[in-house]
């Protein structure tokens, strides 16, 4: 990543603002630029420092990471909801509840007694 930052800084450390944008933001017109094939127009030309270039590259990479993981999450979310609906807990019948109570009640009472011994 540091290679990307260094390359982007040394390849193009300058930026240009068109005349109307420069005047809107209060920058002085200090250069003559050629925008999108138009004739030469006054513009503002500034220089980026290394820290600003680092911010720009990290924001650009972060934008792509959010786009990729956000897209994966939005695609995956409906499948999670469908699976939660399909495999949701089913109601227990009264007969099955009585069977489970007969099996689990002695175990639960034994565990409760062991917990009381630990409290004392």
Radius of gyration, taken over Cα atoms and rounded to an integer in Å: 33 Å
Output the strand order for the largest sheet: 1-3-2
Q: Assembly state here?
A: single chain
Shape: elongated
Report on the biggest sheet.
Answer: 3 strands, antiparallel
What would the keywords be for this entry?
120 residues; 3 strands; three-stranded antiparallel beta sheet; single chain; mainly alpha; 67% helix; 4 helices; 2 domains
Write the layout of secondary structure elements.
Layout: H1 2-11, E1 14-17, H2 19-25, E2 31-33, E3 41-47, H3 50-86, H4 94-119
Antiparallel strand pairs: 1-3, 2-3
Helix pairs in contact: 1-3
Describe the model.
- This protein has 120 residues and is mainly α.
- Helices cover 67% and strands 12% of the residues.
- It has 4 helices and 3 strands; from the N terminus they run αβαββαα.
- Strands 1-3-2 form a 3-stranded antiparallel beta sheet.
- A hairpin with a 7-residue loop joins β2 (31-33) and β3 (41-47).
- α1 packs across α3 (50-86).
- The protein is elongated, with a radius of gyration of 33 Å.
- The relative contact order is 0.08.
Can you give me a brief rundown of this structure?
The chain is mainly α and 120 residues long.
């Amino acid at each position: 990543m540091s290679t990307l930052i260094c390359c982007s800084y040394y390849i193009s450390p300058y930026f240009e603002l068109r005349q109307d944008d420069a005047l809107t933001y209060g920058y002085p017109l200090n250069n003559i630029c050629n925008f999108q094939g138009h004739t030469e127009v006054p513009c503002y030309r500034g220089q980026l420092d290394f820290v600003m270039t680092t911010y720009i590259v990290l924001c650009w990479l972060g934008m792509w990471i959010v786009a990729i993981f956000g897209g994966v999450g939005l695609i995956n979310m409906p499948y999670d909801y469908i699976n939660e609906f399909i495999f949701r807990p089913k109601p227990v019948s009264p007969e099955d509840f009585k069977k489970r109570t007969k099996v689990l009640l002695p175990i639960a009472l034994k565990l409760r007694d062991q917990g009381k011994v630990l409290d004392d």
